[in-house]
Design brief:
single chain; about 160 residues; 2 domains; 3-stranded antiparallel beta sheet; about 20% strand; binds zinc ion
Length: about 160
């Protein structure tokens, strides 16, 4: 790597660490000629992007923003922080990128997000599911909701010590 100070091409790597969930690798380097230090970043080539196959079989590039937008809608006025939304997206993406490298169905993305959201907030989960999952009929949604309500701890227990 060419030194930005003396332009010589001799260096050694002092430190490497990944960030942005392994998508970026940051390397600290030292020039062997002038001894100065500089940093380089390695990133996956964006040409190898994951495509999402929609229900009508059209393809669009995967876009994390769309996942976050969907989560924001589902979590509207729910006690879920912006940081938690990012974590849900991170975990869903781990599953998605581990399972597919070229294209993935929009329903698989929906399912992966739902699985994570369910652990964080049941109400937001049901909202998300009702918008994004193909419920064959209303009966299926009601079944899902009543199952969730049974699983959720009674609210009285949760607020007992708060007053
Ligand atoms: Zn140098």
């Amino acid at each position: 790597m060419k030194c930005p100070f003396c332009k010589e091409d001799q260096d050694r790597v002092i430190d490497s660490r990944s960030s942005d969930n392994g998508r970026v690798i940051r390397r600290r380097r030292q020039c062997l000629v002038c001894k100065r230090r500089f940093t380089t970043y390695e990133k996956v080539n964006e040409d190898f992007r994951l495509f999402v196959v929609k229900k009508d079989n059209s393809r669009v590039p995967y876009d994390r923003e769309k996942v976050i937008n969907g989560l924001e809608k589902a979590c509207y006025k729910r006690p879920v922080s912006a940081e938690q939304l990012q974590q849900i997206a991170d975990k869903a993406e781990e599953t998605i990128f581990r399972s597919f490298d070229k294209e993935v169905s929009s329903s698989f993305i929906g399912e992966s997000v739902m699985k994570q959201l369910r652990r964080v907030d049941k109400v937001a989960y049901i909202r998300f599911a009702s918008i994004y999952r193909d419920f064959r009929d209303a009966g299926e949604l009601i079944q899902e909701v009543s199952r969730e309500i049974k699983e959720t701890e009674p609210i009285t227990q949760l607020t007992l010590f708060e007053e």
